[in-house]
Amino acid sequence: MDAVVKSLVERSQPQRDNSARELLPTREEAEAAVRVLLRWAGDDPTREGLVDTPARVVKAYEELFSGYREDPTSVLARVFEEVHGYDDIILVRDIPFSSHCEHHVVPFVGVAHIAYYPSEEGVVGLSKLARLVDVFARRLQTQEALTAQIIGAIDLHLRPRGCAIMIEAEHMCMSMRGVRKQGAQTITTQFTGVFRDDPAEQARFLTMLRHGK
Ligand SMILES: Nc1nc2c(ncn2[C@@H]2O[C@H](COP(=O)(O)OP(=O)(O)OP(=O)(O)O)[C@@H](O)[C@H]2O)c(=O)[nH]1
Ligand SMILES: [Zn+2]
């Protein structure tokens, strides 16, 4: 694994050590923080429509950021060895995801395409690739880190002959605010193993992505 992927994989481990866990705010503190932001937005958190909003927001945060409590190792733990000699590319295309950018805590939304050449260790259940995307997407992210963390986890746990990933996403921090460029798509890719070493393999991955669209 190259140094860049390795350093991002290290970030992919559950990000709260024990000391950070001790610093977790209480639910009441989190709700109070939401009330402050509602006031900052210019509204009145005591009015009827907003009274239950802090509790809802805190509950939504538990779901939207559940990835901090999930471990990529357990998602990829079950491997199927019996594939009757299949050793060609496995591509799962158009895996939808939503994440939040770590700069503005605003969503970015898109699709991930993941391909790998299985090693003799076997293959992973297809749904696990989609689950893996969510483990990392449900954290505060940059698209680059999300891309590298997903491929790094696959490389680390499945030891494939090669892995390729492309993520296409629209960042709401670029469309709803700031520069306000709706529809701009950001595309990131990362390759390991045969995909990194052989341009023909990268071309095959890109051709398979286009196929059928
Ligand atoms: N590289 C990268 N940048 C991102 C991502 N998500 C958001 N950004 C960018 O993060 C940058 C933060 O720039 P700053 O100048 O610190 O913040 P800002 O004043 O809010 O920037 P503007 O968005 O240009 O208004 C912006 O250019 C965003 O477009 C991402 O996933 N990857
Ligand atoms: Zn942003």
TrEMBL record:
InterPro entries: GTP-CH-I_C/QueF, GTP-CH-I_N, GTP_CycHdrlase_I, GTP_CycHdrlase_I_CS, GTP_CycHdrlase_I_dom
Cellular component aspect of the GO annotation: cytoplasm
Region Disordered, annotated ranges: 1-24
EC assignment: 3.5.4.16
PANTHER family: GTP CYCLOHYDROLASE 1, GTP CYCLOHYDROLASE I
Family according to the record: Belongs to the GTP cyclohydrolase I family.
Name of the protein in question: GTP cyclohydrolase 1
Source lineage: Bacteria, Pseudomonadati, Pseudomonadota, Alphaproteobacteria, Hyphomicrobiales
